């Protein structure tokens, strides 16, 4: 009995450490090739304001690339991270996620904004688990009005269905 309690506490502690958000300085590269300083963080698993870092404003671009990368030193997103954890885009923007990590991933919108218990929202966007985005492959989605209206604050949270600790957000404007 005590052994089960100990193991449960140990597992809970490990999960808490893994889910702890940590800030690491990173550089995001925009499709134009220019570097934009960004803070690489993993999102907290509680909904609400402050869940994601301030969005990187890319509303002046019609196409945005978000790389799926190996985690920077100390990051909790394993085995990979979305290089831009929160990007601000306009309706009509084409977003391409490129897998630069060593394992397959998905890019899947969730219902609501709580990544701790994600429910996929395939009507918004979902690259699918049947055909993972393999290393060197990409998935493209054009932001539409349905995504803008999906949540009242116009934020769409998404994650990797294979690695649910990998979460990020799109902040959408018109």
Q: What's the CATH class, please? A: Mainly Beta
> Which percent range fits the helix content?
10-25%
- Report the biggest beta sheet as strand number plus sense, adding barrel if it closes: 5 strands, mixed
Number of helices: 2
Secondary structure class reads alpha/beta
Strand order of the largest sheet: 3-6-11-10-8
CATH superfamily: Cupredoxins -  blue copper proteins
Tell me the count of domains: 1
Shape: globular
Give the SSE order as H and E letters: HEEEEEEEEEHEE
If classified by CATH, what would the architecture be? Answer: Sandwich
Rg result: 16 Å
Oligomeric nature of the chains: single chain
Beta content: 25-35%
Poorly predicted parts = 2-49
> How is the CATH topology named?
Immunoglobulin-like
Strand runs, count? 11
Terminal-residue CA separation:
57 Å
What does this structure look like?
The structure is a single chain. Strand 1 and strand 2 (35-40) form a beta hairpin. This protein has 174 residues and is α/β, with parallel strands linked by helices. It has helices at 2-19, 145-150, and strands at residues 24-29, 35-40, 56-57, 63-69, 81-82, 86-90, 94-99, 108-109, 138-142, 155-159, 167-173. The strands form three sheets. Strands 3-6-11-10-8 form a five-stranded mixed sheet. It has one domain (2-173): Immunoglobulin-like (Sandwich), CATH 2.60.40.420.
List the helices and strands and how they pair.
Layout: H1 2-19, E1 24-29, E2 35-40, E3 56-57, E4 63-69, E5 81-82, E6 86-90, E7 94-99, E8 108-109, E9 138-142, H2 145-150, E10 155-159, E11 167-173
Parallel strand pairs: 3-6, 4-7, 6-11
Antiparallel strand pairs: 1-2, 4-5, 7-9, 8-10, 10-11
């Amino acid at each position: 009995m005590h052994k089960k309690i100990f193991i449960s506490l140990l597992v809970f502690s490990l999960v808490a450490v893994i889910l702890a958000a940590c800030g690491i300085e990173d550089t995001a590269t925009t499709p134009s090739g220019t570097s934009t300083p960004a803070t690489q963080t993993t999102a907290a698993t509680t909904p609400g304001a402050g869940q994601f870092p301030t969005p990187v404003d890319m509303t002046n671009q019609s196409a945005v690339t978000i790389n799926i990368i190996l985690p920077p030193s100390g990051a909790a997103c394993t085995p990979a991270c979305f290089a831009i954890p929160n990007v601000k885009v306009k309706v009509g923007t084409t977003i391409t996620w490129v897998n630069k990590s060593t394992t397959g991933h998905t890019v899947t919108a969730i219902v609501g904004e709580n990544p701790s218990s994600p429910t996929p929202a395939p009507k918004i966007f979902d690259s699918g688990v049947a055909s993972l985005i393999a290393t060197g492959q990409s998935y493209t989605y054009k932001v539409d009005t349905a995504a803008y209206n999906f949540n009242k604050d116009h934020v769409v949270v998404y994650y990797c269905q294979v690695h649910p600790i990998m979460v990020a957000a799109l902040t959408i404007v018109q």
